[in-house]
Description:
The protein is of the alpha+beta class. 37% of the residues lie in helices and 19% in strands.
Amino acid sequence: MNRQSAVARIEALREQIRRHDHLYYVLDSPELSDAEYDALFRELQIQEDIFPDLRTPDSPTQRVGGEPLSSFPSVPHEAPMLSLDSDQTEEALRRFTDRVERGVDNPSRVAWVVEPKLDGLSIELLYESGLLIRASTRGDGVRGEGITENARTIRSIPLRLRDEARPVPARLAVRGEVIIRVDAFDALNERLISEERPPFANPRNAAAGSLRQLDPRITASRPLEVYAYDVLASSGLDVATQWETLAALRDWGFLVNEYPERVADAEGILAYHERLHTQRDELPFEIDGIVIKLDDLTAREELGFTSRHPRWAFAFKFPPQVEQTRIERILASVGRTGVVTPVAIMEPVNIGGVTVTRASLHNREELARKDVRPGDLVRVQRAGDVIPQVLGRIEEPDRERGPAFRMPATCPSCDTELVERGPFTVCPNSFACRAQLKGRIQYFGSRGALDIEGLGEETARLLVDEGLVERLPDLLDLTAEQLVELEGFAEISAGNLVAAIEAASKPELYRFVAALGIPEVGGAVSRSLARHFGTLDAIIGADEDALTDVEGVGPIMAARIVAFFAEPHNAENMARLTERMQVQAAEAALVGGALEGKTFVFTGGMESMSRSDAKKRAEALGAKVTGSVSKKTDYVVAGADPGSKLDKANKLGVTVLDEAGFLALLEEVGE
Ligand code: IVH
């Protein structure tokens, strides 16, 4: 394609992608399948790769997250980002509405827009000629942190405003709320926990933590959304009411809440407040009250501002969902990834209409920090759908406290000795601990792992509950006869699952490694490990040093991998798995070269080349380079000042080459 037709094609693709992004992320009514959308997106990426100078900041391809920053710049707001006067009582609300009615010229014109008060964080989005040029957090209200690159990754923020339905002002500053929906929050925390990273306490913290990442790629991986609700400043905008402002924001392509309503008076406000309060737990996002705004913008101007908040708006909050109760006991609960969590079992207490009896105390450190013990009187909070939290204990000077809870030494589910990892306590018996088994089975068969069709959550549950799988390798011995007995299985589906498992039993190395569910080792790292080591035995045999040579593997991950294979139950189950499966060697190790099948270890410095160049030259000839010497090592190349690796080579009788010897070998095999 020549340049001129590329220009047209690129613009057409962007138009289409923008339209489908809007349909998907804002209107929630997609018209394309994922595959169709991906095809458009990929074509645009390819065109932009061919003509890089045609790539513009508002291109949909620019949402993936650029280079990390070292800090956020401080940027001024177009207009002060004020906060809201707030209260939770009906009297305070009536005082507010009375004051407004007294303060405006024409009280008969008073009408209110009522909106959910989203529990997230405020953001300003600045557009010039319809293009997003800056985004910032609220900060002190006058200046905030410039988080433009992070904002670009949020799909519900238009990079370019739509101008079909309504003209776009030359300059426009929009205020909105960054949130994470409750279901996305749960999924995010589940992901963090499975990676053994600390979960967020609530969606608000998750949104704030995700937005304020110096690496925009991390922000891009988080399910953030922005609801727009206000125009902070604009040039040449012609709207008269808040109601119309919301319509304009919708027209320009912003995500705008569907819940706002227009009401006439305090009675209408109270009814809305009550309705949202009852619906609170069913809403897709967390709210902590409602916001009331005078609809008429001219009347707003008559009222003006105090130093901190507008006189025409008010946050009518819900009563706090905090109650007191007593902890009956604390138990240790094993999660799907082996993390053992202390859980407080409490005397039942009603918090905002829901009876609460248990709350996670997260981990050893959290527990020590809060120092809550069985028998203690505690304050418990429930925010929206989120699991109840123990806020802290209430001092009772006259009561003698019981002993502190200690994490058990062995797994409450399988009795394996527990290990400590940072603040977490973990059961290392990954394949045979019943508490972990369902999750492990499901993960084993998931798409990024062995991709076994029909091995979903429900089947995993049945297999474990019915005792057909007691440890992961049992999966491979399942028969159709056994499966037919299970609820929901017929002859065909039973046969299909057995066949799918059989088909997955000769996996590529990286899939097998991914399927093991080693803490922190996801798809990308599994691929690097496979490429680097070539065989499963080499991965299992690698020490921490050798592992850190692999792209994407740091010292913590290396330690996790070594610990995983060293755990006796895991070793036993790995042996059973590999007995039944034929794990394929990885491609990279098979490229036919003169040194194919030979394993090298380099130690000490060389004169004519760097050690990493030496490694590359050997690898280019098909050799495998590892970091540690074993009986399987074919050559140790020792330069100046070699370390203990040379001693080990001599002890094991491995051939040792000096630099000249290595060069001679390269020449001999015809490099
Ligand atoms: S209007 C001057 N509308 O609540 C008017 N704020 O307590 C400014 N908030 O900082 C805000 N939902 O982060 C407005 N529908 C909504 C809101 C909302 C949530 C937040 C906002 C603000 C805080 C004030």
